[in-house]
């Protein structure tokens, strides 16, 4: 059964972690959670309040990381999932995050990212020339990273599937599962 790596950190968006995690388990994939260190991560919930110019943040669920990013051998994984939240703000500074994520793009493996994950991808140069969705406030980062921002619920560019935010998740995961069924089907081991 192919393994999928899901990278998270403290302040990962709760819904953007649990929806793909559970949906991909349901499909029969083995998921491993990587974070800057092995620890119990604290997630957050972003919501919208009437007459408030931006979203608000509340404490969400917690979940243990299976391994530290420094322990990840990306050749063991068939695909990558990157949720949003505030975690991408600091994950992008981690050299092992950069090493692991760059491998998936260089090896042309399936990648799903959503919301603020784009701000961690843009500095790596992996969005260059790609059509990419993200939370609309992240459009400048996508464009500065050489990507083409698309305001869509499931933007597919090759094997990369992106979305704006948690309310796009049914479209986002439906499109990602379609990519996985072709490029990393259940029953076939991961290839580095």
Oligomer: single chain
| Helix content, binned percent | 25-40%
How many distinct domains? Answer: 1
| Count of helical stretches | 6
Assign the CATH architecture: 3-Layer(aba) Sandwich
Name of the CATH first level: Alpha Beta
Which strand order spans the largest sheet, edge to edge or round the barrel? Answer: 5-2-1-6-7-11-10
> Mean pLDDT, rounded to whole units?
95
Radius of gyration: 15 Å
Strand content: 25-35%
Describe the structure.
This protein is α/β, with parallel strands linked by helices and 192 residues long. The chain has one domain: Rossmann fold. 29% of the residues lie in helices and 27% in strands. A hairpin with a 6-residue loop joins strand 3 (40-48) and strand 4. The radius of gyration is 15 Å and the shape is globular. InterPro entries: C56_PfpI-like (IPR006286), Class_I_gatase-like (IPR029062), DJ-1/PfpI (IPR002818). Keywords: Hydrolase, Protease. This is Protease. Pfam families: DJ-1_PfpI.
Quick summary:
By secondary structure, the protein is α/β, with parallel strands linked by helices. It has six helices and eleven strands. The strands form three sheets. The chain has a seven-stranded mixed beta sheet, with helices on both faces. It has a two-stranded antiparallel sheet with strand order 3-4. Strands 8-9 form a two-stranded parallel ribbon.
Throw out a few tags for this protein.
192 residues; alpha/beta; Rossmann fold; 7-stranded mixed sheet; two-stranded antiparallel ribbon
């Amino acid at each position: 059964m192919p393994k999928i790596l899901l990278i998270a950190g403290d302040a990962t968006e709760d819904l953007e972690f649990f929806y793909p995690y559970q949906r991909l388990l349901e499909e029969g994939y083995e998921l491993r959670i990587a974070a800057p260190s092995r620890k119990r991560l604290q997630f957050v919930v972003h919501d919208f309040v009437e007459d408030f110019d931006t979203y608000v943040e509340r404490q969400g669920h917690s979940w243990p990381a299976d391994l530290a990013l420094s322990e990840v051998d990306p050749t063991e994984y068939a695909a990558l999932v990157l949720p949003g939240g505030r975690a991408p703000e600091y994950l992008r500074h981690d050299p092992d995050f950069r090493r692991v994520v760059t491998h998936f793009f260089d090896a042309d493996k399936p990648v799903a990212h959503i919301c603020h994950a784009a701000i961690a991808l843009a500095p790596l140069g992996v969005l260059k020339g790609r059509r990419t969705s993200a939370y609309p406030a992240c459009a400048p980062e996508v464009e500065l990273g050489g990507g083409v921002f698309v305001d869509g619920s499931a933007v597919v560019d090759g094997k990369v599937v992106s979305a704006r935010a948690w309310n796009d998740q049914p479209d986002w995961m439906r499109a990602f599962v379609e990519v996985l069924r072709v490029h990393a089907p259940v029953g076939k081991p991961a290839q580095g």
